[in-house]
Specification:
Shape: globular
Oligomer: single chain
Radius of gyration: 21 Å
CATH architecture: Beta Barrel
CATH class: Mainly Beta
Largest sheet: 16 strands, antiparallel, barrel
Strand order of the largest sheet: 1-2-3-4-5-6-7-8-9-10-11-12-13-14-15-16
Low-confidence stretches: 1-35
């Protein structure tokens, strides 16, 4: 297989750092919820409904997500938070044709000191811009960015334990120990997304470590995050070196007056991808053509165009993305050009309240294949949280 050198790894991180400093905005981001009173539960949530018309396909309307969040303060130092999601309106038995129910967060915080606190339970993996801030009024566009879907899967969550805190001078951190991934779920199209164990009888024999360091000051939020762990679950009877996965991401958001910028660069490296492809092909008869490296990056600019005299806001935006789930292939395997993808997205959002967004966007997808054309789509949506 082709090994990614340390020099190349640091080259990408350097490029990501430059790119990240030119990004970041959270349009009409709702104010943080008031802290729950001791002994009194807090109820919150978010919902979003979408209309999608993809080129020649029939138009669809979908109540995509209905999420309820419940929190509770046992004492001023011991707190609980949870998030339960229903996708696509209802759930059928069998093969999840109707939708799904997911426990995305359910953790206990033990507050020890501002610089060091403990957390355990079902947690969000602290990687990238969207995974921890995925409520619909907090990002532009009807759907979540492609990079935060195909390169860094969103919403990525699992059972784990770790620490978090603020370090002063605008710095904060989160770090968790989590289960690894199931490599039998990796694919050429969606990368590692279907390898998430998501807290359901999760195998912990190959644990992972994930961490994020964030800096906030004067409208700027910049972050560096990563994930590193094994992925042997499902491969215990295959005579191959167990693949390891490394995820790295650098991002930034910046707001100045009416204008906002956002950017992110992310990579996923899979060791032993060649052996993994051969083993899975021997098992199923189909070559999954899993890459040794995935790459994604995007830059976004948005502006508030409504007059200052208005109590509501209108925001317009544009975003360019590259999301390559076969950025580098192991020796002996060729990339499929339809997975070397890019997209332009332009749109607008109307905020009658900071917590409610009516959205529109148009998406033009492109790839390097001469046979499979990237589609265009028109999307409408409404999202809110409370």
């Amino acid at each position: 297989m082709i090994q990614v050198s340390k020099l190349a790894h640091w080259k990408w991180l350097g490029a990501a750092a430059v790119f990240g400093w030119f990004g970041l905005s959270e349009p009409a981001l709702a104010q943080p919820r008031a802290a729950s009173r001791e002994g009194v539960p807090t109820v919150s949530g978010y919902m979003e409904m979408h209309f999608n018309k993809v080129e020649d396909l029939p138009a669809e309307i979908d109540f995509h997500r209905f999420v309820l969040m419940v929190g509770h303060s046992f004492t001023d130092r011991l707190k609980f938070w949870s998030e339960v999601e229903i996708e696509h309106a209802f759930v059928e038995g069998g093969e999840e044709e109707g939708g799904e129910v997911a426990l995305e967060q359910a953790y206990i915080d033990l507050l020890v000191h501002p610089r060091f606190n403990l957390r355990a339970g079902m947690v969000l993996v602290p990687v990238g811009l969207i995974n921890e801030r995925h409520e619909p009024p907090t990002f532009n566009g009807v759907e979540r960015p492609f990079v935060d879907t195909f390169v860094i899967p969103t919403t990525w969550h699992d059972t784990g334990a770790g620490a978090f805190g603020t370090l002063g001078r605008g710095f904060s951190y989160r770090a968790y120990v989590l289960p690894g991934l199931d490599a039998t779920g990796f694919s050429a199209d969606e990368g590692i997304a279907e390898g998430r164990q998501q807290g359901s009888h999760a195998t912990i024999s190959n644990p992972a470590i994930s961490a994020r360091v964030e800096y906030r000051r004067r409208g700027l939020t910049a972050g560096a995050s990563g994930w590193r762990g094994g992925s042997s679950f499902g491969l215990t009877r295959l005579e191959i070196e167990k693949p390891a996965v490394s995820v790295g991401s650098i991002d930034a958001r910046y707001r100045h007056g009416r204008h906002e910028l956002r950017g992110q660069v992310s990579t996923v490296d899979i060791s032993g991808a060649a052996d993994l492809n051969r083993a899975l092909q021997a098992r199923s008869g189909v070559n999954p053509n899993i890459a040794s490296q995935l790459f994604g990056a995007y830059g976004e600019a948005s502006s508030r165009v409504s007059p200052n005299s208005w109590s509501h806001e209108v925001v317009v935006f544009g975003r360019y993305e590259r999301f390559e789930t076969q950025h580098k292939m192991p020796s002996g395997f060729l990339p499929l050009d339809q997975f070397n993808r890019a997209a332009w997205i332009v749109g607008a959002a109307y905020y009658p309240d900071p917590d409610v967004a009516f959205k529109w966007d148009t998406v033009w997808e492109r790839n390097k294949s001469t046979f499979i054309k990237g589609p265009w789509s028109i999307n409408l949506g409404v999202g809110w949280w409370f």
